Amino acid sequence: MLRRHADDYICRRDGHLDRVQRRVMSAIVACRTAVLGGHVETCTACRASRVAYNSCRNRHCPKCQGGARTRWLAARERELLPVPYFHVVFTVPAPIGAIAFQNKAVVYAILFKAAAEAMTTLAANPRRLGAEIGAVAVLHTWGQALNHHPHLHCVVPGGGLAPDDARWVQGRANFFLAVKPLARLFRRLFLERLAAAFDKGELRFFSDLAALADRERFAGHLASLRRIDWVVYAKKPFGGPAQVLAYLGRYTHRVAIANSRLVSCDQHHVAFTWKDYRQGGAAKVMRLTPDEFIRRFLLHTLPDGFHRIRHLGFLANGHRAAKLALARALLKPTSETEPADAASAATNESAYQPTPDRDAPTCPICGGIVRVTSHLAAGSKRLGSAAAFFRCDTS
Description:
Layout: H1 2-12, H2 19-30, E1 38-43, E2 49-53, H3 66-77, E3 85-91, H4 94-102, H5 104-124, E4 134-142, E5 148-157, E6 159-161, E7 168-170, H6 179-199, H7 215-226, E8 232-235, H8 241-251, E9 262-265, E10 270-276, E11 282-288, H9 290-298, E12 309-313, H10 320-331, H11 340-345, E13 370-376
């Protein structure tokens, strides 16, 4: 779709595209074409061959990231504990989303920090769980219709380490933390950090938000946001390790929309499937003009170097290995009586099916072994389509 419409889009919106958006479009257009180079694969048995072009590996590309996802999931699989896992989602109101769009790096970072502090603070309260918890948090900035909708998905083990690290504190089987106090604490921490960012001059306001650059207007805006409810919800626990990985595999290494949701594309419209959650998740097809589709897709480009997957609490990078080893040692004496849902699901690993970056190198004609026989430099003249699989070698 971008190969057909990107040039026209850039011409019409030249003054409104930033460097990241331009680079993303360029990478996706060049992905798996001769522009990036490639190699020729030949079957050692029947001598059929094909040209395979390189991937752009841009993290916003719907066709890439399969290999990175597989490696990341393998590392997470080794870190799973024999306990139930919960799914907690933090969402910000639309006025915050508007500020976030104009200040992505600052506000998205605040979202991570406020959610992490809210969960760890509430869980550490002796009247709640009284333990140090851990979590894997993934930033999503899109809704089903590709609108800008920043929210954080957190996968959290159901329990944590006692303050003295002497025991594992097991949470309730079907309950993580009370969401109402969690939402109120998240709201307070987020708005405090946002106000601090304003005081440091870290926020910029443009267009219809330009008035918020005034201190009094900004303070009034935050005051109104303190009076509304912020949405935080915890879903039922996953069935077990296989279901945790299946969830993470679908949502960690992609942005906005997968190619599988695209229905059609012509000169006038792009059609894709979406779920209307206001009507119970009814499946529908949305049709947008190419310009509008590209505009919505580019809403979700992330600043350079921004990490959209982060580890929190006892799963934080600085001490994850040591804390996990301690947790396993504390859980081992009771592993025979671990929750049934976590134990039974451990045998159902078929629910987790990692998707490789591309098919295994075997010949689709005869099943023989495929070897790389030559390489193509970037920008080489196109010798054939990577999608049109094999052609016979008659030499």
